[in-house]
Amino acid sequence: METREEIIDTSTDDGDMAVLVTRPTDDAPGDGDWPAVLLFIDAPGIRSATHEFAAKLAGEGYLVVVPDLHHRQGRLLNAMETAPPDGTTTQEMVWGWIAAMTDDQIQHDGDRALAAAGVSEDTPILTIGFCLGARAVFRRMMRDGDRVLAGAAWHPSFLADDEPDSPHQTADQLARPLYLAIGDADQVQSIEMHQRFLDAVAPLDHVVVEIFEGADHGFTWPGAPNYHEAASNGAWDATTALFARATN
Question: Is residue 43 a contact partner of residue 77, using CB atoms and an 8 Å limit?
Fold first, then answer.
């Protein structure tokens, strides 16, 4: 299916934010709209790989909405094209971007992005996230449980910590389907780091955890050093099947 994309600028409580919106060029069947997917980026930011993934997902018949979560640092920054400040590394710069966001700010950005894309507050949505975006997927599902039909989280980060509001503390209350794709060779966020979350969701039949042998963090992106074809394709097949079931 052919797709088209646009960048929309909208306002947030912390200034203007760019939103990547990708959709099929054709009208949705009947008089309805294409189902909306709120995509939460990973730490490197919106880059060519993000555009390509959004177009691929939109080609399956979805309106894909991607807020620029790093907008507090600058417009459409990404780690591939942004030089770190003097005396710092790219990794330190990216960790600084992550530390500058709170869960509430990320969800606010998601709200503003959906509104900018024309998705009304009462419209059901799907959501997918990568790395830090996985935590955002969980927060969205817990906050808008009646609205979010299903979620997917690939090579997740920060699903369990020692704070009172850590995701693992309430994960057993998830009411909607969630798919988790994790590599057993993840050097950034190991399975052990997620274990408390995985234990919490283990009794839930509607939460599926798929572990890919040999896959490292960031296995999604073709051309990236950690790209893992089997994990990326397997997670894609599982996610698109989940989204299709949730919207049919």
Answer: no
Q: Which SS3 state, helix, strand or coil, does residue 13 take?
A: coil
β-sheet with 178-183: strand ranges across:
3-12, 15-24, 63-67, 36-40, 125-131, 148-156, 178-183, 207-212
Residues sharing a CB contact under 8 Å with residue 238, sequence separation 6 or more, in sequence order = 152, 179, 181, 208, 210
Strand ranges for 58-176 from DSSP E: 63-67, 125-131, 148-156
In the DSSP assignment, the letter for residue 158 is -
Q: Are 56 and 111 in contact (CB under 8 A)?
A: no
Q: Cα–Cα distance between 118 and 115 in angstroms, integer?
A: 5
pLDDT tens per residue across span 146-192? 999 999 999 999 999 999 999 999 999 999 999 999 999 999 999 99
| pTM for the whole structure | 0.97
